[in-house]
Structures are given as C-alpha cells and as structure tokens.
Amino acid sequence: MSLQTHLAQIPEFRRQNKNFRHFLVDVLAISVLAVLCGADDFEEIALFGEQKEALLRRYLSLPHGTPSADTFSRVFERLDVAQFNACFMAWMQEVLPPEQVGQICIDGKTLRGSGPKPLHVVSAVARANGLSLGQVAGTGKGQELGAVPELLALLDLRGAVVSLDALSCQPAIAEQIIGQGGDYLLGLKANQPRLLAEVERHTQTLPEAAAFTRWAYAADRTPLRYQVWTQSDLRWVDEDGRWPGLATLVRVQTTRHADGKEPVSTTRYSLSSRAGLTPEQADGLVRGHWAIENALHWQLDVTFGEDGHHLREHHAAQNLTLVRKMALNLLKQDPTKRSIKNKRKRLAWDEPFLERLLAALCAPAT
C-alpha cells in the first residue's frame, strides 16, 4: 500500500457535525510532502500547500483548497499519537519486512523545544539502512526506562538483535526481548554495580591474540585502536539465572594514541543473548548501535532543525516528529547520490522530481 493509503486508515477524530473543510488524509499528506521539501513548522507547511496547490490537486481531493496554518496546528494537537505511530509502523513493516531488519537500535532523544517539561522520545532504527521503525514518548529522560518496554511490544523482534544502552540493562527488558523472539545486546555500566565489578575482575587478563583489532580516527584525527573480545563461558556471570538467555560477554577497549602523550584506554562491556558471536561480529553490533545517533538524531537536529522548533503542546510535538521521520525515511530510500539536505532542496526546486515522488506515494485523484 502507498503511504497515502496508510494515512487514510487513521480514523477521523473530528466531529462530523462540525462540517470540517479538509479531509484528514489530505492534511497529513501535505504535511509529509511539505517537510520533505524543507518546511519546518505549520506556517511553512501551509505556505507549501498554497504554492503547490495545482500539483497537489492531481493526487489529493482538496474540496476547499489547501488548509491554513491554524488547521494544521489544530489537527496535530488533537491527532491520536498512538494511532499515527501505528500507521507509521505499519507502513515501515511493508517497506522493510521484519526478516530484513537484522539489528534494531533503540535510544532516546529529548525534544528541547517542547516546553518546560520536555518530551523524551525513544526511537527504534534499523541498523542496515538507518530507517526509523517507530517511537514512544515520555516526559523527561527519566521516563525512558518505562517507554522502552512499550516500544519493544510494538515491534516485531523475531530474528533481530536489539541493542540498547546501559540505562536499559535490566533483566526484565532482556526477558521481554527473548520472549518476543529476538536477541539482546545491552550496554553494561555502573547501574549494575555488582555485575560490572565481577565482569571487570574476570576480564583483566584476556589474551591480546584473541581480540579483534581495528584502527580508526577520532574527530580531531587522533588514531584510535579498538580491541574487542567475546566470552561464552559465563557461569560466573549469572550464577543465579537473572539474565535470561545470556550467551556472550563483549569487552571493547578503546585506546587513544595522541602524539607526544601516553596512550589512554577506556573499556566498555555489553551482555548479549546471541550465541557464538565472534569478536568481529560483536564489534559490528556495538558500532552499529551508535548508528542511531548519526542516522536519526543528528539528521533530525541538523537537517530538520528539530531542537530549534518550539511546540509546547506535546501531542503536536510528537506527531510532527513522526512526520519528520516519515520524510527522512522517504529521503533515505531515494537512490540519488546526494545528501539528505540537498535532496530536500531538490524536491523544493525541481517540480518534476517532486511529482515523481508524489506519484509513488499517492494514487491520482479521481
């Protein structure tokens, strides 16, 4: 089904006796197209609709022209977030079937422009192509731990490795992932102090020859050496069986080799239920987890300017974030060898290019 068809399945929530002038699917479709072309707020979305009305009429009903900025604002304030997210996730399951996902990276981001009690949105991203799969929001970063199980429950985890940072390194989350048919990769830090101390004690003397080693450069061009070890005999880690399915311990040591200075090392640990992980495979999963920072958070902040938008109404903020993710996913699926920023500009400037996208997303109006 096209994205327009998925949007059309969201129930109309406005009172029928109010004689509203614009179909809900038209309001949502224009919003996605406007954000694709560079619109960042409701005023700009409405302006896009005005300027592109002739083109939009070929694919949308628009019985009374294009909506005003106030109409977009009212719709996004009242649109049910869960239903909109379900629409987004259903569309993405068609675009990227669960068996093709591989690794699901889950992480949270605070919407800094969403008022004195800012929203904290927990998102899932497919590592393979950086496509966003869904989101759940809470108020403040402290709500992330509660939002993660809710988001997991919405996802098809069968066959996937689900990676989360240390905040979510909890037996209950591990159990939920296993119960839904997935494997976990959980960062281990000081929020599990006894386990961390035991892991540090048992991994002090791992043989260097057993490590997978690679070199990279920091942002300042300082050489970095990454060494990754895995261990599968973990009876000493989980003697009381608190961690369901635990099969592999991952140790990553990063050493910074700055000119004229002594090397400085930091060590990170992860727990995984994926059996038989080699050090090289573990390195790929650990590195892959941070793809969510570059593939999603950075794009939303830098390309879409998300942190600069001030929407104190939380429903509107969550819904507009979903629109940005729809737009970002569409841009990532375009095979053109251009940056996301330049693809947005081309869509705004090149109407034949925009119409080709419109034709793929929407059926022609009758």
TrEMBL record:
GO terms for molecular function: DNA binding; transposase activity. It holds the Pfam family DDE_Tnp_1. One of its GO terms (biological process) is DNA transposition. Residues 104-330 form the Transposase IS4-like domain. It comes from the Bacteria. Residues 5-92 form the H repeat-associated protein N-terminal domain. InterPro entries: ISAs1_transpos, Transposase_11, Transposase_11-like, YbfD_N. This is ISAs1 family transposase. The lineage of its organism: Bacteria, Pseudomonadati, Bacteroidota, Cytophagia, Cytophagales.
